[in-house]
């Protein structure tokens, strides 16, 4: 060990010359030698065990001009400090992805962490458009309930347990109707991190997973326009002096196209708008603003179907990044996120849900040679309403103004090349304030307003460690506890088209989870990797929507509270370079809900989940790709048998009967296994003005009828079991012009 | 290391093969023992029926209408009633396949005795239950063939009254056109919907003013006292569903007491 560690050290940081921001993933190496590394997320790098001699130290990074410096090692016990500030330039360097993988491997505890590569997003088969969530669904540990929803079920957690952040603001419903698409347009986002468990203390108020999405940093003048059968999307971006901006927009035309092919009007459309404005105030200061708006509208009234559904996300955030000296960086965000949803059925029912989230966050990060310290705080004020008006049958109104505050401290420490520790504590306060409508017990009339208030203190601690067995093999261990103070009204199988969110109120305890993850990882020299991660999660005060809730006492009975367990193991093999790229992911998963009276597998308890994705570069700008999914059957509450329920009919003065069903235990039956093969091909042509790409995809190539649900006609003799299938064989084409 | 990984993968795959709980359908006996208590003075025996059937797998093609060869017995106090299979004669049974599983006996039930039901099935499974019967009900007003004015009701309501019945959870009140049962299919379903009360009187018939009354006709006014077991059993369409008091979990042992009069309805 001592011999191995003998030699000099070169260390320092790498930053953007203009903005002063750290350049994570920057390749730093000694030219003509095997000594090389990549800068960490805080910009720091370290080269160890360098023998005496003269070298050329190279800093290189995509989109930056390369820097070369002569350095001399005269003493093997010496430490050289070399900081570099790189100037931006549009330079392409294919090796950068490999480098960023290596840095991630060496500098981060990578248990359950994924960085989503834009290239992978662009080259996976698509249903209608490229989509972030459809790609996330292929990662290990993630499963889904149907083709018609993009909701992510991560390691036995329901979708409401996932924290979805856009520029550090919570996005409550990042989906469109039918689940074909999420609300993110992938050219508008960058640096997508997806954490399937054991996430750091800077993230809070969720139990299972984090999707952290940042808006893209605008490039010099450019844009694109892409169109497919069902939607058109476009963007323009550019820079002017210290300012940079991008605007991306998308609009579907289901409502116009479907009637051409089918005798059916589908009065549904959505549109998305995502804008970013950056202001580089000075060398060490940057201010950026984001505007995000999505709107879905489905109105079947013209089809004589009295159903109307609509929902919208609105988000605005302003962020400040300020360097404080050489080693401190301060970041601050203020923002507002609104989610509104409504559902109406004729004049009989009108449901409405709305959340206004006003939040502020700040972090201070100090980076040093072997450690990084992060201090942070956040505060949120929520205003929400969940109202159902279905007089004379049911009417209820739950509204409140909860407040949430948290402070955290985290410390990452790499005392030697073989060991990395990342630990942190988070302390949260949740204060729920709800007006409680008092009603006359007999007439149901409002007779007064009372208020319910309660405050919870939520301490959280998380520890992650990584031990490097060899330079390419490492073991990760991650444990921690997590609180969550809001829940989603999520019927079994997610059969409503939108989501209704409810922050917790006095009747319920905050949901609580414990994670324990053990991981093994092998990184190949070309950036490919193998991962194996067994995990166990334990839930307390877990809330499940009570489908049989007492309407007259909805605010007391809307959720069932219990415990839960989820365990399993995730495997993935990823090939990151060469003409063939892609990954194979397999998840073995168990998920149980346990209450005082019953215990059952959750309705998203898929035992096996296999995804095989590949993209092959044929050359001459031709690419072909394929995606095979195999997933064992989901549990469902189904019908086992029937019996005649006899009764005396006093009107006809005779004995009669009606058939009644015998239901199986909750979620004790399984649908058949799901499998589907999607393929696609694309061809790009380069012109002076830019690139034109045409792509064609086929979803469900062999038209397998994957069962979404069963229903029975028990009056029939013999009774008939019918099934509703998911997406059949579906071809689509698209064109994109990029300039 | 690679071998270890492969081994652990294979082990986990085997562990994961257990994917669904067993859900083998098992047929259960389904018995309806609803004793009908009519009004008679003095109290007398009445022919009672108990229906014995079973549950079926959802994929079964059911051409059977009940179970034969069961041993059906009700006893309480000093009385024991053994119900006989309506088709003890094999030769005649084959002509009446839709009447299988009916067991009859002449019986009299009072409202102070705890009665026990025992059904021993052909495969030696036994279903048991116990219940008390309602007091026989007698409508006190209006009197038989009284003339009742529906339109005048909000101003001059007619009140239906009857005697208090023991072991009763609910009273159902019907008012049905007095027609032959073959014509009942032509009348509005609203007449098949009962009004109900837990009291021994009911204002006639505030909520039924919208019913398509045919005036100057006779109607049958029927009051039924229902034991708790039958109320719970009939709750199939409400949260909590149908509740059985039988050890098999399907069916019910309980009783109803009925009385009916004719009323003449005028605008």
Would you mind describing this structure in some detail?
The complex is a heterodimer of chains A (739) and B (267). Chain A is mainly β and 739 residues long. Chain A has 6 helices and 47 strands. Chain A has a 22-stranded antiparallel β-barrel. In chain A, a hairpin with a 2-residue loop joins β37 (608-619) and β38. Chain A starts with a helix and ends with a strand. In chain B, strands 1, 2, 4, 5, 6, 7, 8, 10, 12, 13, 15 and 16 form a 12-stranded mixed beta sheet that branches. Helix content of chain B is 9%, strand content 40%. Residues 16-21 of chain B have low confidence and may be disordered. Chain B is mainly β and 267 residues long. Chain B is globular and about 60 Å long. In chain B, a hairpin with a 7-residue loop joins β1 and β2 (46-54). Chain B has 3 helices and 16 strands. At the A-B interface, β34, β40, β41 and β42 of A face α1, β1, β2, β3 and β12 of B. β40 (639-649) of chain A pairs antiparallel with β3 of chain B.
